[in-house]
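User: Working on a comparison across species. This one is ABC transporter related protein from Desulforamulus ruminis. Can you predict its structure so I can line it up against the others?
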Amino acid sequence: MEHAAKCVIDAQQLVKIYQNGSEELKVLDDVSLQVFKGDFMAILGPSGSGKSTLMNILGCLDLPSSGQYSLDGLDVLKASENELAEIRNIKIGFIFQKFNLLPRLTAVQNVMLPLLYRGVKEEEALGLAREKLTLLGLEARLHHRPNELSGGQQQRVAIARAIIGNPQLLLADEPTGNLDSKSSEDAMRIFKELNAQGNTILIITHDTEVAEQVDKIVYIRDGKIYENH
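Assistant: Here's the predicted structure for ABC transporter related protein from Desulforamulus ruminis:
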């Protein structure tokens, strides 16, 4: 059956092989995956399943050994390093388990960064960053540095930074991995709200409780995708 929505991720027969001396380690084995605009999907798998390698390829942080991958209609494997950097900045919003906030910058300064990299004027970037942080309930924490924020608050700053440029794809790597249960619930509620607003979200996780809250689950084990719901 044809899918009416636009295809954001189209990955076909991805293979990733790492060379360890004379041995080859196949981390991804013939992985095919499609993600459509508006999808709220999880890639679920245990440690060592290949999910982090897959995330790095989907996020244009690494390239497969073979296969095909297009993101928002662009052939990623034919892109130059500069084009890949532009894709990461414009097309993808990353949310990492360890938040990856710059410690010397305040919350609002961290959120502004992607726009400043694009050449957006500082005043405009500041206004948009304030707006996103306020939407996520952090209006009283704009000028706090990461070490002055709780884990849940740092995660919300990271989410604000990911969405500020209106990317085609939100890619979240174990987004609740460093959070307590209350903050995890808050993060998933925010993801659901963002998805309801039309954002395409792909969560990489080992946590079945997280995966059960999305609309589609892809299971990965030993570098292979086994079920696609």
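For your comparison, note: DSSP finds seven helices and ten strands in the chain.

User: Helpful, thanks.
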